[in-house]
Request: fold
Amino acid sequence: MNIAIILAGGVGKRLGLEKPKQFMKVAGRTVLEHTVEIFQKHEGIDEIVIVMNAAYVHDAQDMVLKNHWTKVKKILNGGSERYESSLAAIRAYENYPDKTQLYFIFHDAVRPLVSKKIIDDTIEALKSYDAVDVAIASADTIIKLDSAKKFIAAIPERDSLNRGQTPQAFKYPVIAKAYELALADPAMQTTDDCGLVRKYLPDIPIYVVQGAEQNVKLTYPEDIYVLDKLFQLKASEPDSHADLVKLRGKVMVAFGGNSGIGLDMVRIARRYGAQCFAFSRSTTGTDISRRKDVEGALRQVADVTGRIDYIVNSAAILNKEPLMHLEASVIDKIIDINYRGMVNVSVEAYRYLKAARGALLQFTSSSYTRGRANYALYSSTKAAVVNFVQAIAEEWEQDGIRINCINPQRTKTPMRIANFGNEPEETLLRSADVAAVALKTLLSDFSGEVVDVKL
Reply:
């Protein structure tokens, strides 16, 4: 049984906060909520234990109820030192019938960007090893200071140096034995659980899983700004095994469904038994920059079907030209379709998706992370899509509406061909492949996420 131990016993001394740093908010939720949610959704995790400072156990209990964390089985009082929190979790399972079947996966509550891959790799490594750490190579030269901590005493070879992260994982008998030996040592000193195993059980090899730069730890005040930006750029991916058969009987409306990705979404969804309705300027005269057009299209569908489960907006305009070469009317049209249209679709979608507890899907572009010459309006409106989706996901969470955005790499669509001409096929995604990921995203349970689709 894989048990995630979320170590949240810190009191935020370095940040000088009134509340511990795991209660700081980033991307609309507390850091602790982001972290626990990752393990709650991971199919390889069987149980979750949260170890808290005793003064904040009630806050954690409230979070469990609010977020429906069904895997959280224990909320334990931690201690003033990290090892005391780990020990609290170990002792909580002392009476488990077969402790050889317990795998403990310790993770810092203030590392809210740990990836599914890191957790996957950690769990897989535990099948072959008794102890597992996560680390990344050091990009900087590491220097060792003298006893006065003012001068360089040594410069170790960087090739063998890594920076440790979490999770750290152990088979229960191993970590329990390490703590038993450590507690019997009057001179015990420990910085983390792997260090404890290394010192007191030196014959136990500790396997190292590749970590990630994004798996940062909130430690200093400036870290919150880094985390906030990383959350903006964070990408999720739907379950690759998601069964599109679940589309059967669902009602989907696609704005921009006349060509490219939108058209492929409609074609695929229909093959799986969904009722699909496509609207565009060229086929139905529906202009999403006019809110009344959007309202009329959705009302038309609802009058026929009685409900709408999914609404997709893939409509956009790209003019690959310098800003000062564009006519004023073209500038207005790009902003109206790419931004105002997104807002119109979202506002008009709300009541239908609230009733159906459905999902809304918008599309961004890989250019959203940085503005590019000749793409000024397109890049900036696509950056707005990401911010808009993340904000609205928070606003609509209590209404049961999921909203995400798809971020495809270069994709072969009529719009791209019109702006770039012929390009090598192997450098482009197929629109049907992007459409399949988009449909799986509609079926997913996450919200407020950017879903990257790459070659």
Notes: The chain has a mean pLDDT of 93. The radius of gyration is 25 Å.
